[in-house]
Request: fold
Amino acid sequence: MALDAKIPQGEMDKKWSDYKGHVKLVNPANKRKLEIIVVGTGLAGASAAASLGELGYKVKAFCFQDSPRRAHSIAAQGGINAAKNYQNDGDSVFRLFYDTVKGGDYRAREANVHRLAEVSTSIIDQCVAQGVPFAREYGGLLSNRSFGGTQVQRTFYAAGQTGQQLLLGAYSALERQISLGNVEMFSRHEMLDVVTIDGKARGIIARDLTSGKTERHFGHAVLLCSGGYGNVFYLSTNAMGSNVTAAWKAHKKGAYFGNPCFTQIHPTCIPVSGDHQSKLTLMSESLRNDGRIWVPKAKGDNRVPKDIPENERDYYLERRYPAFGNLVPRDVASRAAKERCDEGYGVGTTKMAVYLDYKDAIMRYGKIEAGKHGLVNPDDKTVFNLGKQVVEEKYGNLFEMYEKITGENPYETPMRIYPAVHYTMGGLWVDYELQTTVPGLYALGEANFSDHGANRLGASALMQGLADGYFVIPYTLGNYLADDIRTSSIPTDHPAFEAAEKEVTDRLNRLMNIKGKQTVESFHKRLGKIMWDECGMARNEKGLKQAIAQIQGLKKEFWSDVRIPGEINEFNSELDKAGRVADFIELGELMCIDALNRNESCGGHFREESQTEDGEAKRNDENYRYVAAWENKGDSEWQLHKEELNFEIVKPSQRSYK
Amino acid sequence: MEHYHMNLTLKVWRQKNNQSKGNFETYQVKNISSEMSFLEMFDVLNEQLIVEGKEPIAFDHDCREGICGMCSMYINGQAHGPWQQNTTCQLHMRAFKDGDTIVVEPWRSTAFPVVKDLVVNRSSFDRIIQAGGYISVNTGNAVDANAIPIDKKDADDAFMAAACIGCGACVATCKNGSAMLFVGAKVSQLALLPQGGPERESRVLNMVAQMDKEGFGNCTNTYACEAECPKGISVANIARLNSEYLKAGLSSEEA
Reply:
């Protein structure tokens, strides 16, 4: 099947408005007859379910948590980008578009990114109208801050809890539609398969995680808003339950998987402290606005940070990238940290950490405050205390979180940080309308591959999730459903539903009947280690080939020796987890295959064979200027399809932040 | 930080499902690092139980960074354990010492029935939000975000109220099983913002009616909720809820 991205004709900045002007519509009476399934209730899912409910469609929404408000979008800290130009600092839709394409290292589809930048401003308006309490200035207007990879201030925020506030906004809109009867909510439910009839997605098989029973649900269309797959690495900043299962089942039913190896390793996370570690915690990129990153100039310097004088510190990001300094994009900052630690300059007990230091920022803010209060020649302690208050207001919850986890006070001593898996740019391949290669099956938010290329800029995930849900899918879905108004609801005793449910229950039975010796968790940890070592921050041919063989071995071992206690028809967290880990194992193999195929470095994907003399990622536009869309052909078999990327506006060049 | 290891005795509430009667079971865990989180200690225990051929303990958890509100353990008689302004997932084992006995129970409240072991059903919170915890603005209806300036103090107070994670510790810790802090936080957030104005009265009346219907108790001002709230939501929000309710009741025809 040839990949058609269905990019509208015309000038880049007219495509979306032209599309909207000519797209097919569904009249209100017909909307009431059309049923839509939404899987996942994070920013993309909740906003889509709410907006489609408002339009009058009959929506069923599913989440595996006990409430839609728990989806992992809630943990996003730093902010959300929008091209409002409220700061008068030269921002525009074009700039946001340009920064995003460049930040993604020229591996995103221009038309999608332009649309994203266009609708970004409406997102902020919508959220404020919902009562999202963004940070404000004394004049009562909205405040902004900077994020990596940009030179303007376009990030809107609510302390270090922006994702929480945006999700609660979308959740409240969703709950309103539930109360109005337009959306039916299924919490503690997990999607375990897509049902296709005549090649179109027509529903899902879900499992009620409380009773353990499988259920059949019909929909004229199915929207997957199930997030990313960073947990394939076991340790990541994702929530414990975040998983690839919904997207993976769709992949096995015919949806191509786009750029699976594109993973974002976030530079500022709390380092691993021991084998017991179950997850890693992010320290928001917003901290790089004010914090300075450094390591000692001498190898193996074991002095406490305050004893290391200024001239013996290496502020390596400021040194290497003077134009962007500490605000280089995430992939660049992560690799630079790894480089210093690999060379033996790391700090802390494990030596796999660098310092993120707030001392200068606290003193700088303190002096400004002292000036405001009319203090003449204040002593250092007074300045420090005044500055600390400012930093507390901006980042207080993050500092507290750091102290809870490490037991160290980051106001007094620099934070120790190290890169960790945070986000996956790859995901289900979608066209301009967010439709996968299966008609009627859509993917929104982090679950799709579309907007961030090979590296996502900070504060753009929230933007994309809400753009897809509030402002894109309500238009593009109508274009599909307009041709489906004559299809009445298909009863779920249809043979396709029966077959899909049988497949699901057979697999559950198979898992339960292995009755082996090793726990699900132990397999997940081993998979994570293979992925981190060979498909993490640096990848090479030998390591990837080795990883593929190891993962295939792990898969065999899993299916013959995993131990799952309890029963199917009851609340059984181990069984839930086992299904997810089985899918992660298969995905891990595909990620390595994709990373092996892409013999170039771009964004977060760093192939050691392809780097510049000073160790920067070296793209190969001649051979790899495409989206790798993988079609599943059976057990451990995939076929590569390529979507060539054409850059009409932002001409690819060596990305430089120097 | 000084690291150390410890052996612990755990008394954990086990309950097969909503229909069955529960009881405490005693477990021993060894060599627990002070650097572990409380839930990582539970992970160790569960791995141990699975290897021994026993059923692991069911507990709710997801983000493990104190923001999703899913984790919910009542530890040694305190919701989320001994640390102030903290969730169970952010509690670390350095709060305990070698030889300690730790008692772990689910949230206990009429409106939060037990699902299994330490897992409870908090859908009553969702239904309270459905009753009015929103601003009725369909997608696409909004004016420019800066069209309505909002006093920074009001915006900050609204944010502080909106920081509620909906975990239910306030209910679990209240001797009356009251949800007034949870409801007060949402009512306050939306009452402090001009966008919440048009539905201000119906919102508070409907949310309180739903709260009563769900079987939550009344507030007798013990302030236990504020003391145990992991996000430090202030009881001033309960005062605002009362005042909003009173005002709405006076001007409402249904009062």
